[in-house]
Design brief:
Oligomer: homodimer
Structural class of chain A: alpha/beta
Number of domains of chain A: 2
Shape of chain A: elongated
Strand content of chain A: 15-25%
CATH architecture of the largest domain in chain A: 3-Layer(aba) Sandwich
Largest sheet of chain A: 5 strands, mixed
Distance between the termini of chain A: 37 Å
Radius of gyration of chain A: 23 Å
Number of helices of chain A: 14
Chain lengths: 421, 421
């Protein structure tokens, strides 16, 4: 019997609260099939680890440490923002990749990421056919943006959705308390450059008309200043306060991001980032209400302490399914989440071809957005609600989450050559 | 036997994740002593409710609803920012207050707030002696800023401390993952205009040299740009990334807030608030590192989902103790938290005179601040650590915390007069 081929696993793009749960699923499942999969090597900083022969030997980690990945946020092996060019455009990259894979007897390639990363995985899956190196390449879905196609939702999204809905509910209780003599407007900025899924999820905090957030600003809807100000004013007059959630990608009718709308520092440089203060200042200037604003930024996608139990389970399941697909010899695929029913929420694992996943962006459907453009519909709520169900608290030590830091022992290099990325 | 006098309870100043736990302590304890305390009336929006005869009848709330206050953030009866003037300066205010208290047969006055609020409580405590209306007035400590004197710590602080330490630990895991090809600097802005207690608490996330946050900027230390940039650069070169926590009150040697350092909008107005983007932009301009920044704002003080169990217990205990002090006839006092030992952490309830509490601000001791000014000492850690111990999760419904909204039924007005506040 031939020696079992080793596996390569890497994390790519922006990390999430549960991408390590997928890593846990990959490694634990591979360890159960030692006769068929040899060692799991992780790429240090994603695909860059493969190109530079900077591999991490996950067999040096205890079962307990790998188990702890399930409750640890961010990318335990390091991630990267690095997109491979096409096979014909930069053949040297692929030749180097093959050189490294060959040196370490790697026959399985798992790539955990969003749209760009699935494009990379797709290209790698072709090196068998086009360059003669036999590989089984399986993508593992991950993105807080929830914009991957085919899969019903993406691991990572459910937890950020839960975080933003919890956060705006809490902050709205706060501003409601203060509104009589102080703050009347609270603005919370969330991620979502192109798609408004995260901002939409904040809408789950509102159970009935008038509940916060009363206004959600989505990148799918061109910002209408007059309609916005009218709704803010009406909300304050009706509810006593107004809680606003704004997606970082909100733009005007000309496509100009609001976050770039004219703020300059003392040297005249345009200020980078931050649409929340722009919205808050607009409300102050035009309506003269006292405001507070928050920018959640990384806090939202790293918030493992308030992760969705559903999301954790799905992230783990995607890692596990990827290994199982590989063991079946399936190349150029990605496991998916398939929704069976809303109430009760039931889901199962499906499979998509990487060719159909790569570089396709799933936007919010028009019928998920309220007719006035400032909220979500019942249909959207029915889709989102299951994804934030359940709590999956990490263990705590001295009052803080006990997240694992792996040893990340490097695999001894076998190639004498360097490669510049 | 004379009819038991009614009690007035109100919330004042910025709210916290646990001020309602104090309200719960007051109301539950008062309900156990019905022969001695009649009804508990809450002021709608703090002292304003008393002045405008806008009282809430808490007897209309079920035991279950009152119990739920223990796990509900912010001020259930509404808070206010409103400071009473001195008895001689604005006698009309006090005469009106007495008129309302008399009309509703109120003999106990509980005021739940920070330094300014304890000043108000102190003034009210004097109306017996100076204006002849018999009252027992007890303050209940509350402030996220932890700047009340005499009490070892203030309810509300422990939970915000836990939130910021958890958040920076999580965000640091994120930026560490991204640092190879993307973000190297993460800046998180937290509250603390005059005292750096909250920013200091973020330091609990660092267990050993090099752990995040590597830099804490406190309002107690004048900002030294050169030393700061040197440390950022050195940290990135050593750790691969740098996590920075900045207090909103950070200022330069001339006392000028960094948040006011020259950002202007298109119309030339100074931009209000946000020191995190100022710090991030400085690092970008001078060191050219890619950055992300977050502003926690209300999210930090409303975050009941990650409240400290110790803080919740102390907040409840302060409410309970206030009623017990009142039943003993103690006027012009405030219950306090007295630390008995650090390891194991033991505390008990003490008592302070309002005259000694009002308008005194407790700053961070110099020996709590690291010699380079960018972190906390072991002594500071020993003080802070017990305050974030334990989790006290709220119940969840449909994936979100089930916070209570009270009915807040108004007490029928007995006075035909209005009072302008």
């Amino acid at each position: 019997m031939a020696k079992a081929k080793n596996a390569f696993y890497a994390q790519s793009g922006g990390v999430t609260a549960v991408i390590n749960a997928s890593a846990c699923g990959v490694i634990e499942t591979a360890r159960k099939h030692k006769g068929k999969i040899g060692k799991v090597y992780a790429g240090r900083n994603g695909i860059i680890g493969a190109l530079t022969e900077d591999l991490i030997d996950t067999t040096k980690e205890s079962a307990q440490a790998i188990r702890a990945l399930r409750h640890t946020p961010a990318g335990a092996f390091g991630s990267c923002r690095y997109k491979l060019k096409g096979l014909q455009e930069n053949k040297a990259q692929y030749e180097r990749l093959i050189e490294v894979l060959k040196a370490h007897d790697i026959g399985y390639f798992f790539y955990n990421g969003g749209g760009d990363s699935q494009d990379t995985a797709h290209k790698v899956s072709q090196i068998g056919e086009q360059l003669g190196y036999p590989i089984i390449c399986v993508g593992i879905p991950k993105t807080v943006d929830n914009d991957l196609p085919i899969t019903d939702n993406s691991p990572g999204f459910g937890s950020v959705a839960k975080y933003v809905a919890v956060s705006i509910r809490e902050a709205a209780f706060d501003v409601a308390s203060m509104a009589k003599t102080s703050t009347k407007i609270f603005v919370m900025e969330v991620m979502g450059r192109h798609a408004g899924w995260i901002a939409a999820a904040a809408g789950l905090a509102a159970e009935k008309e008038g509940d916060a957030p009363q206004i959600i600003l989505l990148p799918e809807v061109a910002f209408n200043e007059a309609a916005f100000l009218e709704k803010v004013d009406r909300t304050v007059k009706t509810c006593g306060y107004c809680a606003i959630v704004v997606s970082e990608g909100v733009h005007d009718a000309n496509g100009r991001f609001l976050s770039e709308s004219g703020l300059k520092d003392a040297f005249g440089h345009a200020q980078l980032g931050g649409v929340a203060p722009v919205i808050a200042r607009l409300v102050k200037d035009k309506l003269n209400y006292k405001y507070h604003w928050a920018v959640a930024d990384y806090l939202q996608r790293a918030a493992r302490h308030i992760a969705s139990k559903t999301d954790v389970a799905q992230a783990y399941a995607m890692g596990k399914a990827a290994v199982e697909l590989a063991l079946k010899g399936r190349n150029a695929v990605m496991p998916t989440i398939v929704r069976k029913s809303n109430r009760p929420y039931k889901w199962t694992v499906g499979v998509a071809n990487l060719a159909d996943v790569a570089n396709v962006e799933k936007k919010m459907p028009a019928d998920f957005i309220a007719s006035d453009g400032f909220g979500i519909t019942a249909k959207c709520r029915a889709y989102l609600e299951p994804l934030i169900q359940g709590e999956d608290y990490p263990p705590y030590k001295k009052g803080l989450p006990a997240y694992v830091k792996l040893k990340n022992v490097a695999v001894k290099k076998k190639l004498g050559t360097e490669f510049k990325v």
